[in-house]
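The protein record now logged underneath.
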Amino acid sequence: MMSIESAVLLALIMFLNGALSIFAVWSSHSRLERRLSTLEQAEEQRQKTLADARGRERAHHAYNTLAAIEDATALLIDAELDLDAMRARQETALGILRVLRKGPNAYKQSYKQDKE
């Protein structure tokens, strides 16, 4: 049979074990509640951002509109390339005239030097 001191000691140990178990459960529960609160706040912020993005959404271009934009862009790029070629031809003509200004035989001499 157990003595009273042993029974009290056993009861005290069981009480402390129960108290520690309750504290561990409570601590885990508190940690999970804080984490859940953080996740809920993040979800609310995500929903607000998504709603703002939907509010700013603009209409999409139709296929025909996109095709027209691409065609116009291609024409402008082609015109720019033609302009660059025209500028190069003008620079060449200007160079010839500058050489010719040096004297009546300057162009022929310059032409021969370019050939060699």
